[in-house]
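ARCHIVE CARD
SHELF: 3
SLOT: left
DATA:
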Amino acid sequence: MLWKDFPALDRQGQIKYLTMRDGTNLRTACWPSEDDSRGIIVLVNGHREYMEKYSEFISDFLKRDFAVYTLDNRGQGLSDRMFPDRSKSHAEIFDDFSDDLNEFISKIVMADPRAKDIPVFLVGHSMGGHLCLRYLHDYPGVIKKAVIMVPMIEFNLGNSVISAVTKFIIRLACKIGFSTSFAFGQAAAFSKDRNLIRQKLLTHDKARYDLEVEIIEANPALYVGGATFGWLNKAMESTQKIRSPDFLDKISLPVLITLAGSDQVVITTASAELFIGHDNFNVITIEGSRHEIYREKDKYRDQLWQEIDFFLGIK
């Protein structure tokens, strides 16, 4: 990995591969703590993402004197994929992702020389936010605070009828042997035209979005195509776990939830309703923002950082 692939960074980090309990190799990166570091950020990417997408976001944390640790989730980026066809995003069980996060934190993050002296914060986006909730529930006591952006709680599949039918088809496809097949509409090939359509779902900022196209063209191995029926089915099962009674009651640390008011990927109201009544969850909606707040236009992104700075005690 050449650090020019992280265009916004002026501080060199370290790339390491971590072998999981089942032999899967995950690509990890870190910018370790320094004498003046105020804390450690563990950054968890969303579905089909990779650490290069977060170069500006990582740089923002580094400028605030945080150490940063991140990884490519299994099946994404330059971590091991499940199939020779690297374009398929598949999962056999979602527990693997949160277990991977635990191994990463235990073996890599907590090996930072100052990990016992400064707070460790968890930051996740979309599927990464979903995995953070799973991790915080299953592995309490390590993280001081968590920032979860637009968590994957309920997919935006259309109105209630269309959503119910789509979920039925996904489950049926898995039962009759199509678990490893691409779900409908999940094109595998990378194309600029398709990316222009995706941009309008994810961010108003075309310049920031175009960086993703440049990164993929420079390193096509980072790209992941669409989800399989199996991935979608396991994601829905995992979502049901998070929505189950008493799940959130077992997460007692302070959590900042930032939602996007114009999100078309996940349903904002479903997330907002889930966290009602839990005093340790501070839910903020950034009106007008699309799904990827961390690389939105500055007028939305600045609001995100204002909330993060206040929550982490920077301002």
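SLOT: right
DATA:
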Amino acid sequence: MRYAYYLGCWIPARLDQYDLSTRVVAKKLGIELVDLEGAGCCGTVLVRSVNFKTNIVMSTRILALAKNMGLDLLTLCNGCYESLMEAEYLVKTNKDLREQVNTILKSTDNLVYEGGVKIKHLIEVLYNDIGLDRLRDEIKRPLDGLRVAVHYGCHILRPSNRLKFDNAENPRILDDLVEITGAKSIYWPLKLWCCGSPILAVDENLSLSIAGMKLKSAKEAGADCIVTICPSCQIQFDTFQPDISKVTGEQYNMPVLLYPQLLGLALGFTPKEVGLHLNEISAERLVKALK
């Protein structure tokens, strides 16, 4: 299995542990990640809110680079996934927009894109291409007794009529992937709430208060940690957790892991090999409990 590997912006800038843990897990499972050289930002969220066509051009350029490599595209970022899927759909179904986009791409990069690249999130590859049975067979250190609050993030599930990644009202893919490690995906009331990250630049207190409500919900449900797949959600819950505590006046001490970090531990990798030392909130007590 070979994929053009697209990291987006947030991961190389702020979440090396997502890339690190993905690479060690991929190598273990025989997934070849071929770096998508020359790729820039996909334009999701921030650019889209200013100029939608620019967003589509930026995402289509990434798809064109993958097409020239002859590979399908693997991404880790929920926002990138949504933006790339949107671009793929519009290029294939909107002739006028496709011509406008290709005119721009030809003039800037001598690229043309007519569609055809499959876009896959990491957990789609693990769930569908590797499969739960194979993953179970590879588990070396079952995470028995670990209670996990699973958080998908908004942009992987919605718009549900376009993405069709999972059931937007009752998703299971990430829950099932968590449970093949031996951990238990617990029920928590605010599981499908937004983390608050999209409004951070507009209303910081509201954004962090929403994240605080989610952290409190996970803690009260008895979670040992939160596991997510979204870079923005990880930064919101983990990097900003001290700031959230200042706003809410509550202490959470809630480790927040990216899924390949959790899977990597279950596959037998050390905490350092999956980049746990790069997380803001220490997972030391969690790791000790698993020994």
